[in-house]
Amino acid sequence: MRTPVYSALAGGLLTFAVGGAAVAGQGGMPQLDYHLFAPQLVWLAIAFVTLYLVMSRLAVPAISDTLERRQGKIQDDLDAAEKANEEARNLIATYQQRLADAREQARGLMRQQGESDSSATSTRLHELSERLAVQISEAEKRIAKQRDDVMAGLEQMARDIGQEVYGKLAGQAADANALAGKVATAMKGANR
After folding, report:
1. What is the mean pLDDT of residues 85-102?
2. Is residue 147 part of a domain?
3. Which of 25-34, 38-47, 120-129 reaches the highest mean pLDDT?
4. Average pLDDT across the chain, whole number
5. For a tag on the chain, would you pick the N or C end, based on fewer CB atoms within 10 A?
6. Chain centroid to CA 93: how far?
7. 3-state secondary structure labels for all residues of the chain
8. Cβ atoms of residues 183 and 156 within 8 Å
């Protein structure tokens, strides 16, 4: 099909060139010679039909095919982009869900760790409190023993001083039992 169209086109162009060369040999512009209007219009019609056939049979289908392929490629690209966009949305939603789950899990672990730390701290504080209570109790016992020792020493010292003062004031030795009773009574009154 293409070969006859090309040969017809080539033949028409050759005839047009030969006829134009003959007219050009006579001088003047052949387009303006009114005797040649009819053949020029015939050749114009032949050239138009030929170009129309060539364009409609060869160029337009090729252009249409190219446009269809291009439109198909664009549509495929748009579909692929939409699919990728949807996948990206799904991945983002999955990521956000996992992130929320991880945050919740971290909060739970922190809460659990806080509770275990709190219970461990409470246990250690209780143990420390018990140890301090034992140490305070032992210290109070030592202080009470030392106070009793000091008080016993004071009582003995008070008796000795009382005997010495009585002896200097009265000029004679004091009754040890009576002085011990009075010092004991005075010490009991001082302890209250």
Report:
1. 93
2. yes
3. 38-47
4. 82
5. C
6. 14
7. CHHHHHHHHHHHHHHHHHHHHHHHHHCCCHHHCHHHHHHHHHHHHHHHHHHHHHHHHHHHHHHHHHHHHHHHHHHHHHHHHHHHHHHHHHHHHHHHHHHHHHHHHHHHHHHHHHHHHHHHHHHHHHHHHHHHHHHHHHHHHHHHHHHHHHHHHHHHHHHHHHHHHHHHHHCCCCCHHHHHHHHHHHHHHHHC
8. no
Please indicate, yes or no, if residue 176 is contained in any of the structural domains: yes
Domain count of the fold of the chain:
1
**Full domain range(s) for residue 179:** 141-191
Is the pLDDT at 83 greater than 90? The verdict is yes
Domain membership flag for residue 18? no
**Residue 148 in tokens:** 């009793």
Q: What is the pTM of this model?
A: 0.39
| Within a domain: 87 | no
